[in-house]
Amino acid sequence: MLLFYIRHGDPVYSPDSLTPLGCRQAEAVAKRLSLYGLDKIFASTSTRAMQTAKPTCELLKKELTTLDFCNENYAWEQLTVKSADGRTMWGFQEPEFSAFLNSPEIRSLGENWHTHPRIQNTEMYRGIQRIRTETYAFLASLGYIHEEGKYRYRVADKKYERVALFAHQGFGLAFLSCLLDIPYPLFCTHFDMGHSAMSVIEFAALDGYSVPRVLQLSSDSHLYREGLPTKYQNRIYF
């Protein structure tokens, strides 16, 4: 299986939708994915994610299946913290908390990072547990059964498929960390994804098992091809 994880295009958060630029980004994604096709297309239940998926569904004549567990609202409620000035921010973006997540103290705990007293029994802990459970259930529905403690998936369905999931940044960093069995603090403080950026994960089967590998992370080659701006979060050119 090839899993394509696409963050939504340039957004308007209230009301939830895409900007004109976001719509063009969604069309660029559709052109890229239509080159080789998809077997299944999923999206978060947020409007901006579904609008980003729509051109791909139209080009490939595929139905969209929505997944409510991917909705960013839930992740926002559970994976955010308060900054010193009272703002609500993603934990990986708030300077002091991000430094804590990347500290030797947290690193030394490895996959048991959530047992730290500052994390245990918090909404962040419950949020990661929720996303982990739903992520493994989603992958199981695609024929890949996660084996706890072995950091691999048992391949229950050998049918090769190309699957796309259109969703979000905050949710996506947690989703990919669970999928790849990489502790969330390490993943969310060292990796990111831009608007409409595409990450590609290969589930190659070997002797009935698969260890997913990242072939591309936050790729924006479709934006280059269409001559669209490649600003990250609308502020940095590269």
3D architecture notes:
With 238 residues, the chain is an alpha+beta fold. It has a single domain (2-225), classed as Rossmann fold. 38% of the residues lie in helices and 24% in strands. The protein contains 9 helices and 14 strands. Helix 1 (20-34) packs parallel to helix 2, helix 3 (72-78) packs antiparallel against helix 6 (123-141) and helix 6 (123-141) packs across helix 7 (169-180). The longest helix has 19 residues, at 123-141. The mean pLDDT is 96.
Sequence-ordered SSE layout with sheet pairings:
Blueprint (H helix, E strand, L loop, with lengths): L1 E6 L3 E3 L2 E3 L1 H15 L5 E5 L2 H14 L3 E4 L4 H7 L1 E3 L5 E3 L4 H7 L2 H4 L15 H19 L2 E4 L4 E4 L6 E6 L1 H12 L3 H7 L7 E5 L2 E2 L2 E2 L2 E7 L1 H5 L13
Parallel strand pairs: 1-10, 4-5, 4-10
Antiparallel strand pairs: 1-11, 2-3, 6-7, 8-9, 9-13, 11-14, 12-13
Helix pairs in contact: 1-2, 3-6, 6-7
